[in-house]
Amino acid sequence: MKTACIEEIKDWLRENLTAEKYVHSLGTAEAAREIAKICGGDIEKAYFAGLIHDCAKSLPLDEMLLLIKEFGIELECGEENNVKILHAPAGAALAAKIFGVDDEEVLSAIRWHTLGQVEMSQLEKIIFLADKIEPETRGRECYLNRIKTVSEPCGLERNILDCYSYTIKSLVDRKLVICQKTIEIYNHLLKKCTI
Ligand SMILES: [Fe+2]
Ligand SMILES: [Fe+2]
């Protein structure tokens, strides 16, 4: 199966996502491109992965679970019943199924854009951060402030560390469970950024 082109993917996303999520997808693609430029990453691949990272966002839970099963994707603790994060593994499966994406790097960046993992590839880091700071729905001022810091030493990792700090603080404030893996990723990034 031939991989779908950018315009075909945009048409599909426009029809299948809410207007807000469609704009967020465009913003994430733009942000991913900028971050890749700064970090010396693959600019086109970053844009492509950013564009499709939320492709499964509007699927009902049962369809997400079917796709995940069909593609044999293993779930992490806490993912099974959490529709907010399940769209990431479901998205990797959907991207392969309907857009013919066979680039493992891209599929992995989609799969891990919500939870992250301890050893992330550069593309995984780019998509993880782009999703959190994109200018269209997260605020342009915040985006510009963040993007400035990506070029600093360990800038990509420091920005991702800030995302985890924010998430952990928010979970503590709301007295919610923090996954073991989230803490592991936080500790790993902290060590990397403070060496
Ligand atoms: Fe997402
Ligand atoms: Fe997103």
Q: What would your notes on this structure say?
A:
By secondary structure, this protein is mainly α. It contains eleven helices and no strands. Helix 2 packs across helix 7 (122-133) and helix 5 (83-99) runs antiparallel to helix 6. It binds fe (ii) ion (2 copies).
Gyration radius over CA: 16 Å
The portion of residues forming beta strands comes to under 5%
For the largest beta-sheet, the strand count, sense and barrel status come to: none
What name goes with the CATH superfamily? Hypothetical protein af1432
Tell me briefly what this model is.
The protein is mainly α and 195 residues long.
Record the SSE blueprint.
Blueprint: H1 6-16, H2 19-39, H3 43-52, H4 61-70, H5 83-99, H6 104-111, H7 122-133, H8 135-138, H9 140-150, H10 155-173, H11 180-194
Helix pairs in contact: 2-3, 2-7, 3-6, 3-7, 4-5, 5-6, 6-7, 7-10, 10-11
Looking at this protein, list some descriptive labels.
11 helices, binds fe (ii) ion, 195 residues, mainly alpha
